[in-house]
Specification:
24% strand, two-stranded antiparallel ribbon, 4 helices, alpha/beta, globular, 26% helix
């Protein structure tokens, strides 16, 4: 199904970006500039562009939470920037818990988890 054919389907997205980028010698891949913007900005924008995405939470390393909360490149649907855990799984769970806590109505809907260092996701893939 294409992104245009989604109708009223809604989903939330957790973008996990809490890693240390240890495998990329001397460079933080999440903030590496591509086309004048950080790689992470492209990832967030690609996820946010899917019409079904209502809320997006960014999971960051503890020392980056405050910096990224005020980043000018955050899309409007980023409703939270939260601290990640010691593993990717713990970080994804932190994002899902945050979304759950922000939804007192307890709506049932899909939660998609995406890696912050993968900016080539498309709105159709998110759909």
């Amino acid at each position: 199904m294409s992104a245009e054919g989604l109708g009223s389907l809604r989903a939330d997205v957790v973008v996990v970006a809490a890693g240390a980028s240890r495998r990329m010698a001397g460079t933080d891949k999440l903030l590496a500039e591509i086309g004048g913007r950080p790689l992470l900005a492209w990832t967030l924008e690609a996820c946010a562009a899917a019409p079904c995405v209502e809320r997006l939470v960014l999971v960051a390393a503890p020392d980056r939470v405050d910096e990224w909360r005020s980043a000018p490149w955050l899309p409007a649907c980023v409703t939270g920037v939260v601290e990640g855990g010691a593993s990717r799984g713990q970080s994804a769970a932190a994002g899902v818990r945050w979304l759950d806590a922000q939804d007192p109505a307890g709506r049932d809907r899909p939660v998609l988890v995406h890696d912050g260092a993968r900016p080539l996701v498309s709105p159709d893939l998110v759909a």
